[in-house]
User: Fold this.
Amino acid sequence: MEGPLLHTLEPSRLTVFNRVFAAVYACAVVALLCHRSSKLIHSTAATLPSISISLCMLTSDLLLAFMWAATQAFRMRPIHRKEFPDNLVRTVKESDFPALDVFICTSDPHKEPPMSVANTALSVMAYDYPAEKISVYVSDDGGSQLTLFAFMEAAKFATHWLPFCRKNNVVERSPEAYFASSNSWSSEMEAEKIKTMYDSMKIRVENVVERGKVGDEYITREESKAFLKWTHGSTRQSHPTIIQVLLENSKDKDISGLLMPNLIYVSREKSKTSPHHFKAGALNVLLRVSAAMTNAPIILTLDCDMYSNDPYTPLRVLCYLLDPQARSKLGYVQFPQCFKGINKTDTYACEFKRLFQIYSVGFDGLGGANHVGTGCFFNRRVFFGCPLMLLLPEIPELGPNHIVNKHIQSQPIMELSQKVASCNYENQTKWGYEMGFRYGSLVEDYFTGYRLQCEGWKSIFCNPERAAFLGDAPITLVDVLNQQKRWAVGLLEVVFSKFSLLTFGIKHMGLLMGLAYAQNGLWAIWSIPTTIYAFLPPLALLNGINVFPTVSEPWFVLYVFLFLGAYGQDILDFMLYNGTVQRWWNDQRIWMIKGLTCHLFGFTDFFLKSTGIFSTHGFNLTSKVVDDDDQKKRYEEGVFEFGVPSPMFVPLTTAAIINLVSFAWGLIMLVFRGSKLEGLFLQMFIAGFVVVNSWPIYAAMVLRSDEGRMPVRVTIISTFLACGLVVVASLTLRG
Ligand SMILES: O=c1ccn([C@@H]2O[C@H](COP(=O)(O)OP(=O)(O)O[C@H]3O[C@H](CO)[C@@H](O)[C@H](O)[C@H]3O)[C@@H](O)[C@H]2O)c(=O)[nH]1
Ligand SMILES: [Mn+2]
Assistant:
């Protein structure tokens, strides 16, 4: 190899074990399925109810088996990478570093506080990277003066913040995180001074947000001109394009006299009559506006809450993007989503250890990391056709090889930017279909990453010890479930598109990658086996019907092995990625809960929409503010937050009641009648397992009196439903 070592790759030590275990487990799964089907075919005293029960159990076992098989794709070749930025710095001159365009998306000043978006921007503007090579583009889909105001303030503050960070070698480059951290500040006096400055900016911005308008006392006459672009009829859904250059690297300097990065505010044109494609649409506008203004070969995309936690991140990325061997086919370098503010036991499993870490490592070894929407460095070329054939956009100036040789505020550049941000610009172009971020799914990140990999682009998962970015995770159950419902619907949109994972995916990327994508994409189908297992075995138990083999049958051992094997391997994976047993427990609980709530509802919504009964799905933003102190406290203590009467809580609560009743019934039978439990042992075990998992639900129904308890309405409806189901079961199941 020529040149110094920039990065290495090491296969996981678990690989051999994973493969052997997969082979053994596969045999057990096949045996189980054969057993189930042969019982169905050969049963002598078959009645309609018994056949229906067997069919349901067979269906759920088939789906579980499929999901298990798909999950194995991630376990076949997990790899771990390391980068050596020090070697890079030694060999590549700073002046040869490529330029970097950063895209930050925000869309609602009330759910996504402008001050936190500004912090995100400041944290990347302060990267340990030549400032004049960085351009930060902020897309404001909320079209809000409040956000623009926050960025005007941030631009001024940045002229102090950047030199401060450089001089003191600050690691936390989001000011909010820096001032909140307990690290001793490098230079007390100076730090105090800059903190005062930050606090006063924060107060101004928060005042403005609270009042909902930018008062004249906050801005100079010069600045007020920018706000004139908001006309009388401007609303969030309908307004002209507003592009405001807040800092320009050719003329703006920080207080130490060094050049500043570019900072550009973009609120694309919106009209009620043209689709805007949510975040994917916003990103495509930024792709074009940035092409017109700076056209950097590297692009970093960030959600508004994901601030940089490590100033050296771009250097890590260059270890891959400047590697002559990998460069031509490398589409993007993805960092995991990491979160701050998650409680000790991660009550709602918001860490997403599997999706953002374990599976990404698996994907990386197979053919490339999946894209997760934020914290991703793209090679700009990736948005313009496959590696071998450049797809030129309708205006050559937007192409990836075009070199911009004018100032960003010069008239032709500003005119072009305005034009490409208008809401009808994309009509009759390839944007969103063959170029840029892809439309057609609410999970534009998953879909875009998938399509790019199908085109032949490679990608890399970069998971340094210190998290590169940190974001906010939802802290109430209903927020979590709503977010997951959006994901479930978005994923199904991909599954049922012409780019379906199992056909198109396998054809273009091979069996394992296709399966891996399918495992993600088909998340919502977990809801089918979960629902069946949550209701059928306990209802059968209440009626003395056994749906599993008895303890003395040899098949019983098979069930025990399948259960222990799956859970055992899962917990092993979890622990090896720095998990704790408590977090794992909560994680498996949330997995069950999701099956009965967001996945079930996402599934239903999707099909109602496909049949035209429902109108289109929207992108319900995940809230990033918690105003309620009690709520925050409950979260810290790991107490479940129900509170709102969401319909999603109904099936969940119903299942919890039915399992409790049937488990209690089983115990009573055992104690008073000494009834033979042998046949019903597995059903008792499953019901008991559900009951233990459902503890927070029972507590929320009867023991708690705080605002986060289960709404009485949900409890009543669920109790009625549970009674109804028990009656119906007793009338039908026994045949
Ligand atoms: O019309 C829209 C809707 C959303 N956003 C932005 O999209 C980002 C993600 O939205 P959020 O509410 O935080 O959704 P999450 O579910 O937390 O986000 C995950 O899922 C999304 C896909 O559903 C991905 O886009 C994200 O990158 C990924 O982190 C935020 O910065 C929003 O401002 C827009 O710019 N325009
Ligand atoms: Mn988010």
Q: What stands out?
A: The CA atoms of residues 146 and 209 lie 6 Å apart. Residues 48-76 form the longest helix (29 residues). The mean pLDDT is 94. Residues 105-107, 112, 139, 141, 278-279, 282, 303-304, 373-374, 442-445, 483, 486-487, 490, 619, 621-622 surround uridine-5'-diphosphate-glucose (ligand 1) (CB under 6 Å).
